[in-house]
Amino acid sequence: MSQAAQKSLIYEGKAKRLYSTDDPNTVLIEYKDSFTAFNGEKRAEMSGKGRLNNLISSAIFDYLAKNGVPVHFIERVDEVRQLAARVKIFPLEVVVRNITTGSIVKRLGVAEGMKLPRSLMEFYYKDDALKDPLITEDHALLFGWAAEADLKTIKEITLRVNDLLKDFFESIDIMLVDFKLEFGRDNDGNLLLADEISPDTCRFWDVLTGDRLDKDRFRKNLGNVLDAYEEIWRRISRMGK
Ligand code: TMP
Ligand code: ASP
To answer: Which of the listed residues 96, 178, 193 should we mutate to test ligand 1's pocket, taking the one with most ligand atoms within 8 A of CB?
Structure first.
């Protein structure tokens, strides 16, 4: 690790720890071996999970950065840590759905597994105590969670990320069913794609078998949870070889 010595713990979340470095513009993100679902109601520890999500998320952010997406990710430092720009996170979770499953099926009673004629974008207010409620853009504007120009940029980046990720995963026989993004602003005011992109934050279905290769295996007690994460990493690490 070059210029970034790990200093003190800034924040511990459900799946990651954030550390300051000797550079006020960067943080070290350490991926934990913890699984949580349903707002932390269901928990488990699985050795090796942090490593897999760090490897997968780093590879995806590398790919997005190479394709011009502004990202907080700088570099993977070791098996469980990455260096990223220090950002202030917008309290929004931006979800894109290409195929119906999960909360939209429960909330609206629509059929599961429907391929949507175009991608659906949803905003959730990031607040654990409120269980991340679904909101409209107007809520975000009126309550000051994001400005109009920020929302515009966030939507543009999100659509671009969806296109890039669909291609990326299609090339390794995985359907990108849905995913969640988070955004932040760095110390210079740049709006950047942040957080992680991994089987914790996306739904991946095997094109050929329909197998679930993501955190739904944990949420729904389907078994072989880490095998699925391992399989995603195996396919990504062999890309282009
Ligand atoms: P949902 O169907 O449960 O709303 O999830 C939509 C997508 O967002 C799915 O890919 C999982 C991801 N997600 C998160 O990353 N964090 C969360 O807290 C939730 C609820 C979903
Ligand atoms: N990320 C949330 C939790 O850890 C919910 C989920 O992903 O199902 O509780």
So the answer is: 178
- Percent of residues, the chain, with pLDDT higher than 90: 95
Distance of CA 6 to the CA centre of its chain: 23
pLDDT value at residue 2? 53
- The ligand 2 atom at the shortest distance from the C-alpha of residue 41 is 9
- Residue 125 CA to ligand 1 center (angstroms) comes to 12
pLDDT tens digit sequence for 200-235: 999 999 999 999 999 999 999 999 999 999 999 999
| CA-atom Rg of the chain in angstroms | 17
CA of 70 to the centre of ligand 2 (A): 25
Question: Global pTM?
Answer: 0.97
